[in-house]
Amino acid sequence: IPQDRIKSEAEIEKLTNEVAVLKKLSSEIHSNAKVQNNNENVVSKTIPDSILIANYENDIDKFKKEAVQKRINANSTKDVSEKEKLISEAVAIDKMVNEKQSLVLKINDISLTNQYFDNTNKLNQVKPVEASNNETTTANLLVNEAKYFFDKASSLKKTINDSTPITQKKIIYDYIKTQQELALQKQLKAIEIYSKNDPQFAQIINN
Q1: Residue 166 gets which letter from DSSP?
Q2: For 91-139, what is each residue's pLDDT tens digit?
Q3: Residues in CB range of 195: below 8 A, 6 or more apart
């Protein structure tokens, strides 16, 4: 077997193994992110989501360029064996890029989900009062609206599975993100109203 062929197969195997690791990590993140009915924030993170996402996006850009270059090299060579090798490597890199892109979408989703349930925990610490005013009524409505948008996002997530193309995943997750951010905005507005009306609650949410 030619030496370059052995090297090519080793590179493809390495990339395939990394994809398998990413799939396992993605599966673990997805499992850990199943927030339970008691509204606990169950995902434990040691690295901020923004840094994780930035790292993955840097990798994605780098690998995309590498795949493009391999295809350019494949088109320019007349050596059939070399052409096949380069195309195989580009395909393997494409798979890794898709996995990393899926992971970025899931991490972002988990981050927003955690924020929602963190806010829910804070809001749940406010016990209903017998005497309500227009502002607290507005806050209650905002909490209900937040739940509506969050539930809508959760329903949309059920339409995504492992076979969903990455381009379609991006479109769906972008819309999910919009709904989640609307939910967070409603929650934060409710928190602001409650904290104005209840100094004790203001102390709770600032802890």
Answers
A1: H
A2: 999 988 998 898 889 888 888 988 898 888 888 777 555 556 777 888 8
A3: 201, 202, 205
Q: Which residues lie closer than 8 Å to 121 by C-beta, 6 or more apart?
A: 39, 40, 41
> What is the phi-psi region of residue 47: left when phi exceeds 0, alpha when psi lies from -120 to 50, beta otherwise?
beta
Could you tell me which of 111, 141, 96, 140 has the C-alpha nearest to residue 41? Answer: 111
**Amino acid sitting at position 202:** A
Contact 55, 135 (CB under 8 A): no
Distances (CA, A) of 8 to 1, 75, 96: 11, 17, 16
Cα distance between residue 157 and residue 47, in whole Å: 24
| pTM attached to this predicted model | 0.71
Q: Are 53 and 107 in contact (CB under 8 A)?
A: yes
Question: Residue 206 CB: number of other CB atoms within 10 A?
Answer: 8
**Cα torsion for 195, 196, 197, 202, to the nearest 10°?**
30
